[in-house]
User: Fold these one by one.
Assistant:
Number 1:
Amino acid sequence: MSSSQELKKLGLGDEVNLCVAEVPVEYQTVQSLLPSLWKQHLPQLVVHVGVSGMATTVTLEQCGHNQGYMRLDNCRFCPESRCCMEGGPDCIRSVIDMDTVCKRVNSSGLGVSVSVSKDAGRYLCDYTYYTSLFLGDGRSAFVHVPPLGKPYSAEDLARALRAVVLEMLELMEQNKGKKHCLHDQ
C-alpha cells in the first residue's frame, strides 16, 4: 500500500477533509485532470506526493518550473513546446515556506528525516507541481518520498506526510490575509 493510501487511513483529524487521488505519469492527463480536481474539490491546499529513486529523505519542493520538459512520459509523449504553460512564468513558488515546515517536522522527533529542494526534476512531478501551483495561486505543495523500504516503511512515510501536511495547513492559517508574491522576479 502506498504512503498516500496509508495517510488516508490515518486521516488528518476531524477538522480536515482529506481527498486522495492518483495522477498518472502522463503530461496530457495532468493537463486535463488537475483543473477538474481543483474545480471539483475547491481545496484549501493540494499536496502532491511522488516517489523519487534518488530521495533518501522526505523532500519538500519549494517551486515548480515551466520549461525544460524533454523526457517522454508513460505514453511516450512529450510536450512539443517543452514547457508546461506557454507564456507562463518560469518558476512559481508555493505560498508555503518549506524551510519552516522542514524545521518544525524535523524538530518534532518523528524519526523521519525531512529536507527542502528547489528543483523537482523537470519531469512529471515538476510538471504536475507547476500546473497545480498555477491553478491554485500557489496553494500547492509537492513532496518527494524515497522508495518504500529505502529506508522508510509506508507507515513511516504516512506519519511524516501527516505531520508535513498539518504543519502546512497551520502555516497557511497563520498567514491568512498576507499578500504573497508567487512568481520569481
Number 2:
Amino acid sequence: MSEQDTFSEAEKAPESDAVLEVRGLSAGYGAVTVVRDLDISLRGGEVLAILGPNGAGKTTVMATLAGLLPRLDGEVLVGGKVLPSARPGAANKAGLVLVADDRALFTGLSVKENIQIAHKAGGPDLDATMELFPALKKRLKVSAGAISGGEQQMLAVARALVQRPRVLLIDEMSMGLAPVIVEELLPIVRRIADDTGAVVVLVEQHVHLALEVADEAMVIVHGDVRLTGSATNLAAHPERLEAAYLGETAPV
C-alpha cells in the first residue's frame, strides 16, 4: 500500500474556508522525527478523528499543533494565519485549545473554580456550559480531585470550551474510562462542533465510537498517514481500517 491511501474522493474545502490547515507537518523530539508529512484542512464545525495503534505518533501531533513541541517542518494555520512554532501561548491566543490526555486539572480547586479560572471574555458562561455537562452541575463545589474519572474528563472539556476555541484538540478522551462512560462522552464532541462551529480534532482508541461522531478520519501508523477518508465510509469498510493498522495493502 502507498504511504497514504486516499479512500474518499470528497472535495476538500478551499483554503480560504479552512479554519485549521496543517501543511507538510513533521514532528518529533529533538532530531528524532516521529510524524512525517501530515496535511489537514478542516472547516468550522468539522470533526476529524485521528486513529492508529499505540506509539503511532498521535499525541505528538496534538502536542505540536498546540505549540508544546517545536515543528520539525511544515506549517500550522488557524484562520489563514501561520502559527509560530513551539509557542503554546500564541496557539491558544489564536483559538487553539488542547484537552490533554492527563486532563491537567487543578485538583485542589473546585469544579466551579477550575472553569472560572479558564474562562475567556466572550466564552460561554457557567450555566451554558452545564447544559452540556449536567452531571457536573451538582458537583460544582467539589474539588476536581474528588470527582470520578468521567466527571474529570467532562470538566477538562468544559474548561476548554469556556476558552472559546476555534480549534479544539482532544487527546484520548476515553483514557482510563469504562466503555459505557465513553459512549456518553463522545456524542458531546459532535454537539460541540455543531453548536459552536469549532473544529474538533479527536485522538481516540475507541475506533467505531469515534467514527460515529467524526466527519473525517485518518489512520497514522509509525508516523505515516496510511488511510484517510470520510468517517462514514471508513466505518462501512472495517477491512480497510484493519489493513491500515497492520500496514498491509487494503482490499479494493
Number 3:
Amino acid sequence: MPSSTVHLLRHGEVYNPAGVLYGRLPEFHLSERGLKMAECVAEYFAERAHDGARIVYLAASPLTRAQETAAPTAAILGLDIEPEPRIIEAENRFEGLRVNRSELAKPRHWPYLVNPFRPSWGEPYEQQAARVLDAVADAARVAVDRGGEGAEAILVAHQLPIWVTRLKVQGRPLWHDPRMRECTLASVTSLTVDTASGAVVSLRYAEPAAALLPGAATTPGA
C-alpha cells in the first residue's frame, strides 16, 4: 500500500488587538509570538528531516497568517510555498465582529443562529471537511510522486477546517463546542494517507510550540 503522511499545520498567533473574528479578512499578520511559533514549527520539521523524513511538498492557505507561518519551514527545508485554496479558513457571516453574547443578541444576527449543527452562520462543516480531505489526498499523491513511497507533505491551514477534518476522519459528529477543539496555535495534525484510495489510515497530533501557548490569544479565526 503506497502511503504518505500529510501534516495539517495550524498557523501561529495572529496580531489582533481588537479581538475580532478575522475569518477570511485580509492582512491579519502573525504577532511576534506567532512568528516565534512559526520558527518552532520549522525546527520541528527540520528535526523530522534530519531523522530521515522526506518532506517534499509544502502548501499553504492564501491568507497572510498561513503564508507567514509557512515561510520559516520553507526556508529551512528549501521548499517553495505552493498555493492551496482548498485549505482556506471557513466562511463566516460574523467576520470583523467581536463575537460575544451582547453582539449575538442583536436581532439582525438571529437568522444566522437557527442551526448550529450545519452551522447556519457560515460554511457547512461537511463542506469544509470535504475540501480539506480532497487537498490532503492530492498532497499525498504529489509527495509520493516527488519523493517516493513514504514521502511527506505539509499543508498550512486554519483551526476550524483542520478540526472538522479530524472529526470526519475519526467518524465523530462534526458539530462541536469550539472551546473543546484539540488544535492549538501552530499545532500539527498528521494524517497517514493510502495514496491509492486517498483514505486516511491513521492520525496523530503534536504541539511543537507548546511552550509559547501560555498567554497566547485565543480568539478563533472562524
Number 4:
Amino acid sequence: MCAGRQLPVLGQSQPERADAARNRQKIIEVAARMIDCRGADQLSLDEVAREAGVGVGTVYRRFGDRAGLVWALIDERERRFQEAFLSGPPPLGPGAAPAERAEAFLTALVDRVVSQLDLFRLVELGSPASRFGGPYRVHHTHLAALLAQARPDADPHYLADALLAPVNAHLIAYQRERGLTIDEVKAGIGGLARAVTARPAP
C-alpha cells in the first residue's frame, strides 16, 4: 500500500518532505471545506486539486483515490479511537475478559462510524484496497486477537470479518431510516458479539 493512502497501525510513522506535508495539509483543508459546503457525495479530486492550487497528479499520487483522501480527513478521530481500544480503560481497553472487550469494541465502533457517517459511506464506495485496508485492517487485527482468546475452537479471522460486516455506514444509515435508534443498533451488535464469543456446549 502506498504511504498516505490509508491510515497505518497506531504508532507507525509516515515521514514527509516539508513541501509534501504542506501540499497534503492544503489538500485536506480544501476537501474538508468542500464537504462542509456540498456534502461528502460531491467530493471530486479534480476540483480539490484545482481549489488547492496543485496538480491533479499530486492529489492522485498522494491519496490514490477519493476514499484515500476521505481516510485522511478522518485520521485524527480514528487515532483517538485506536488509542482507546489499545491502551484505554476497560472494557474497551486492556483489563477485561476478551469476550467483554470484543463486545465493547464493536459497540464503540458503531459510535465511531455514526460520528462521521457520510465520510464512512463515501469510503465504502471506494476500491476494496481502500475499504479493507488501513483502519479496517487495524480493527480486524484487534478483534481477531480477542476472538482467538475467546473462541480458540474457531477461525478468529473469519469471525472478525463476520462481526465487522454489520458495522458499516450504509447498513447503519438504512437501519436508522427503518426507525432503529443507535442504541438499538448497538444492542443488536452486542447481542451478536455475545452469541459468537460464547463457548459451545461440550
